[in-house]
């Protein structure tokens, strides 16, 4: 009996293997198209992961990873006992909370506005204008912002001068940095972010809108009871992915905007890693801080995904 059962299992596994091979043969062109993406992640994302071991070593550039002295959690302890840890974590969390409150809903609201436009030509022009900043380099965008806020030649201070207000050095005042950073991020990415939501809205059944019209629903109620529930799975998935980057604020934008005067509110974990690792050459210390950053992000993704799966039955996996 056991022998017959084992033969049956082997035959079933053989059938599954044949079916898998048939599917691979059938979809070989599609799988071949996936190859560049898979190679990209293997070479640039997974292969370098062995380098995190230097966070637990006193890394010496000449000795290499395999011969550097092992120090365990020394640099993690040093970071959390140092004077900068709380300030960096606070700034990082605050910037990400502001992004979740203001930058994350911005493309949703803009997509809802585009979806309500009935003039096709006006809709196309509006979308094109909103997309343009995405294709401009972050360096150029930051340069435009700095020039716009310049105390001597900036348009912002020129407008303030019309009301007899003295010029303000926006870029030299820590209290203004978070507002400037979030506003720049929204301006650059809000148009591009609407693409996914507009695609999700296009998949909503038009009969739902017709039924809502028959019931006498206003445009606002259609948005609230039809459009938003229709795109809610997309919103949840993007929100979970956003939580994964909650400690990884865009360092390139901050580096282009901040200066030592604004470190109090502008300095975050990513920029700290850049200065300590690449500029000061403290590779092990920077790797420890960055590893902490990544682990917290990974935990948040898993936690948010599990909560979302239980609460809304929508999740990434």
From TrEMBL:
- What keywords appear on the UniProt entry? Membrane, Transmembrane, Transmembrane helix, Transport
Look up keyword Metal-binding and say if it applies. no
**What is the official name of this protein in its record?**
Sugar ABC transporter permease
**Keyword Nucleotide-binding attributed:** no
Q: Which residues form the signal peptide?
A: none
- Family stated for the protein in its record: Belongs to the binding-protein-dependent transport system permease family.
Q: What region holds the ABC transmembrane type-1 domain?
A: 89-304
Q: Which Pfam families match?
A: BPD_transp_1 (PF00528)
Q: Name one GO biological process term.
A: transmembrane transport
Annotated transmembrane regions = 29-47, 97-117, 129-150, 180-202, 223-243, 283-304
InterPro entries hit by this protein: MetI-like (IPR000515), MetI-like_sf (IPR035906)
Q: Which organism is it from?
A: Paenibacillus hemerocallicola
Subcellular location(s) of the protein = Cell membrane; Membrane
**A cellular-component GO term for this protein:** plasma membrane
């Amino acid at each position: 009996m056991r022998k017959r059962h084992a033969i049956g299992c082997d035959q079933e596994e053989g059938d599954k293997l044949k079916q898998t091979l048939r599917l691979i043969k059938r979809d070989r062109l599609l799988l071949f198209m996936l190859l560049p993406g898979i190679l990209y992640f293997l070479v640039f994302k997974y292969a370098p992961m062995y380098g995190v071991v230097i966070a637990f070593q006193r890394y010496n550039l000449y000795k290499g990873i395999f011969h550097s002295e092992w120090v365990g959690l020394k640099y993690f302890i040093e970071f959390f006992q140092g004077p900068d840890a709380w300030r960096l974590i606070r700034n990082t969390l605050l910037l990400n909370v502001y992004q979740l409150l203001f930058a994350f809903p911005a493309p949703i609201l803009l997509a809802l506005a585009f979806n309500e436009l009935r003039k096709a030509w006006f809709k196309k022009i509006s979308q094109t204008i909103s997309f343009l900043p995405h294709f401009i380099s972050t360096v150029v965008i930051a340069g435009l912002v700095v020039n716009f806020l310049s105390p001597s030649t900036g348009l912002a201070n020129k407008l303030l001068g019309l009301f007899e207000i003295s010029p303000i050095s926006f870029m030299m005042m820590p209290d203004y940095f978070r507002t400037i950073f979030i506003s720049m991020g929204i301006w650059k990415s809000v148009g591009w972010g609407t693409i996914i939501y507009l695609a999700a809205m296009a998949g909503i059944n038009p009969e739902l809108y017709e039924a809502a019209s028959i019931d006498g629903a206003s445009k606002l109620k259609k948005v609230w009871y039809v459009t938003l529930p229709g795109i809610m799975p997309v919103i949840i998935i993007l929100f979970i992915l956003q939580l994964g980057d909650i400690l990884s604020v865009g360092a390139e934008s901050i580096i282009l905007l901040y200066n030592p005067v604004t470190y109090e509110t502008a300095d975050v974990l990513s920029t700290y890693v850049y200065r300590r690792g690449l500029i000061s050459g403290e590779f092990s210390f920077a790797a420890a801080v960055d590893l902490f950053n990544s682990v917290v992000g990974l935990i948040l993704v898993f936690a948010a995904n599990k909560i979302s799966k239980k609460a809304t039955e929508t999740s990434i996996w």
